[in-house]
């Protein structure tokens, strides 16, 4: 495996785009992989394609539409309202096993292209309680994938212990804050950039941005 080559799990959102710039700063070769799982907005795939093209990076798009068949959730059932009821353990945007499947396919692709590192933007600090964003899960997945392929690659999580303010700071450190702010799609309603401002993803993103800008200025 080539320790100088990284494969980034890439959605075209704030976190994965920040991870992309992190990879470009630290690795000689970078490729991207995006999963088409019937997500709420096909625009997410278009944004990922556009960013990959602008950055001159090889971009793999894998069909994961089977995720929508496993359980109803607000990210794949487009007519379902995004909610989190007070008595719910998990928001209805949770897609069971999504990151397990994504990392399984990403590591398999990494094996094929000779990438010694697979980078994913999951984090345990600012998240919606998804169990497959936890550090312990990623570490266990790293061990399992290496055993399954008799390999020795690393799943890297640059954002694992960062909150959204600190993630914006990282983008700024790479000189890419405005790029990430203007070009990425995080919004559940499909609005590029600062988003709709109302959905949970937008509120988390914008609160972090405002906190960082206030601290920086």
Automatic annotation (TrEMBL):
Subunit text: Homodimer.
* The name this protein goes by in its record: 7-cyano-7-deazaguanine synthase
Report the pathway entry.
Purine metabolism; 7-cyano-7-deazaguanine biosynthesis
Catalyses which reaction(s):
7-carboxy-7-carbaguanine + NH4(+) + 2 ATP = 7-cyano-7-carbaguanine + 2 AMP + 2 diphosphate + 2 H(+)
Q: How is the cofactor bound?
A: Binds 1 zinc ion per subunit.
Read off the CDD domains from this record: QueC-like
Gene designation: queC
Question: Which enzyme class, named as a word?
Answer: ligase
Instruction: State the UniProt keywords alphabetically.
Output: ATP-binding, Ligase, Metal-binding, Nucleotide-binding, Queuosine biosynthesis, Zinc
| Record's keyword annotation contains Transcription | no
List, separated by semicolons, the cofactors it needs: Zn(2+)
- Give the EC number: 6.3.4.20
Which positions in this protein are listed as binding Zn(2+)? 187, 196, 199, 202
> What does the entry list as the binding residues for ATP?
10-20
């Amino acid at each position: 495996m080539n320790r100088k080559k990284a494969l980034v799990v890439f959605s075209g959102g704030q976190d994965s785009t920040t991870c992309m710039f992190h990879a470009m700063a630290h690795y000689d070769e970078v490729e991207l992989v995006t999963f088409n799982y019937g997500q709420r907005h096909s625009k997410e795939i278009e944004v990922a394609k556009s960013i990959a093209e602008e950055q001159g990076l090889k971009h793999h798009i894998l069909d994961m539409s089977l995720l929508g068949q496993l359980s109803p959730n607000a990210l794949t059932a487009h007519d379902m309202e995004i909610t989190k009821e007070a008595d719910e353990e998990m928001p209805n945007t949770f897609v069971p096993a999504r990151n397990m499947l994504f990392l399984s396919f990403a590591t398999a692709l990494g094996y094929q292209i000779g990438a010694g590192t697979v980078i994913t933007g999951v984090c345990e600090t600012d998240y919606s309680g998804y169990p497959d964003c936890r550090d312990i899960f990623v570490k266990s997945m790293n061990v399992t994938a290496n055993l399954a392929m008799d390999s020795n690659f690393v799943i890297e999580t640059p954002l694992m212990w960062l909150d959204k303010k600190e993630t914006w700071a990282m983008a700024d450190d790479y000189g890419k804050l405005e790029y990430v702010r203007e070009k990425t799609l995080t919004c559940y309603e499909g609005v590029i950039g600062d988003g709709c401002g109302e959905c949970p993803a937008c509120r988390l993103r914008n609160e972090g941005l405002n906190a960082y800008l206030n601290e920086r200025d």
